[in-house]
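User: I want to check something. If I give you two sequences, will you return the structure for each one separately, not as a complex?

Assistant: Yes, each is folded on its own. Here is the first sequence with its structure:
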Amino acid sequence: MDVSGTEQLSLCIRYVDIPDLKAPVLREDFVGFIPINDQSSENLSNVILQRCDELNLDMTKCVGQGYDGAANMAGHLSGVQTRIRENYPKARYIHCASHRLNLTLSNVMSVPAIRNCLGVVSQVVNLFRNHSNANKNFQETIQEHAPDSKKKRLLRLCGTRFIERHDSIIVFLELFECIVMALEEIAQRTWTISSTASTLHSASQKSEFLVSSVVCEKLFSLTLPLSIFLQNKSSDLVSAMKYANEVLSSLRQMRETANDTFTEIFQVASKFSANLFDTELQAPRVTSRQKSSANLQTTSNEEYFRVTTLIPCIDTLIQNLTDRFIKNEDIL
């Protein structure tokens, strides 16, 4: 949807060009935006075919079509892809790989600790980016305590493109010490945002938040190369499956060595807790009546956070990568 409130259909054409009988070149051209008033699959398919006809494209040579997973686009009964295949059966539908990865990563939010962590990060980023006084205080803190840092500004956590959150988490952790000091100082002021800063300062001290933020950085670093590759116009389905399998292998290896992997994560989070808050990481107290799956009896703080954060995240990623990528290898 554009700034005027009109829905726009983005259309791209991907093809192989052989200029002057030279080596073939894979090209991906943006055709343009097409205003859409009717979002039904029938109208969308007609609009796409009409535009292709205007470009004098021979649709009998079309061997693929790619969209997101929305029902009106991907529906196997009456979606756009089905309607187009009725006339051009060679146009095999492929769910956009970048969108599949985005859905895979977004499902990590099903782990409560990760969902809460990213919620706090988002609120902190918004506080410093939306309020001039807070941003000024933050910049002064960076200048005083981290003058050599190349990062001077927090990055927003994109609400729809989960795959872009990796850089946000990296910058957040790099500037975390300055963030904590700025929040503490703002909380002591009499500004309208002081109460919010106080709440976020308290939230940033929690062991669950510290551990979860490091877990996010660790896991997102595995999927980042795949994300970058999928956004390259020269990428193809075979290579995408190969990269997905490599990420899956890394995740499975991490799952097998979860104890060692989490020990490293726990040590990083422990340093944050000790250096910034002069405390040790502590698991929440367990009640006598179990009402939550995260309310577990464990022998140590490290074990508690391992089984409530890292392991559920890895299992979720493995399951979703398998369902959304590996199970589609039959297309090849």
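And separately, the second sequence with its own structure:
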Amino acid sequence: MNSVPPKQDFFADFSTLTALKNKAQKDPDSALKDVAKQFESIFINMLLKNMRSTNDAIGGGLFSSAQTKQYQEMMDSQMSQGLAQSGGIGLSDALIRQYQTQQSGRMSSPETKEAGDTDFLNQVAKQDLANIQALVKRASADFMQSVQQERAQAASGLSNVEKTTAPSALSVVFASPDEFVDRLWPHAQQAGEKLGVNPKAVLAQAALETGWGKYPIAKEDGSASFNLFGIKADNRWDGERAVVNTLEFRDGVAKREKAAFRAYDSFAQSFDDYAQFLSSSERYKDALQSGNDASMFAASLQRGGYATDPNYANKIDNILSSKWFQRL
């Protein structure tokens, strides 16, 4: 059986780049997707390369050699191309959204639109490649840290039962927005009833905080925190914590900081604590008076200082108007 998907570009065929540049001038919208996929392929390749080097640092296999390394690099390049073309890991969609957002305020005339489209390749190369490299470096560092933690656990004689008690963060990742909505909607309804607000607003906030369940907060040992609402662990919290890097807005500027978040044993506990958290704080009193108005609930949360993102309420509104919420 042929394992290579049909119509898959060969990774070393550089003529595709020339064709892509021509396409960007003739059909910018279609080329936008292709360019984003190319950058996603670069990211995946860099990620694989860094993970290979991490494995080499741990200790190569019996058949490790310069020749096998060369073939591994070729295989990884082709694999990266295939993964990006067959759906990828979501990076291409993020790049497209970023570009469209940046261009939306500048495309006031056909002339500026054409200029923006033809400059897209250069713009992406300058603005995003450094970010991709930094992201790969962080991902590789996280992988190396997890390997070291596993070795430390094995050395300390941790039993298999103890190691598998807590589910990993990856095990609770949702495959799609449909799955996210279907599984968590009953919990959102219960929380909405406790708070006296529209349960759609509750679920939409959880979708925003976790990227539709694709980016859950994980504890330092890699286990799941089940924190759906980004509630931080301050001095009022006596339970477990998950310390992670987070993006905060200070005076309108995004800054990366370390923060401790509350950790739970289940999604049900997360919804219960969320309801308790809001109802016990004077800051969110107006939000709890919004009734069935989901947009008012989101706006009141932002005014109460729930998040530092200045577009927090607007993002919740966008999720509320998505097709996945229209069917609720």
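Because they were folded independently, the notes below concern the second chain alone. The first helix runs from residue 15 to 26. The longest strand covers residues 241-250.
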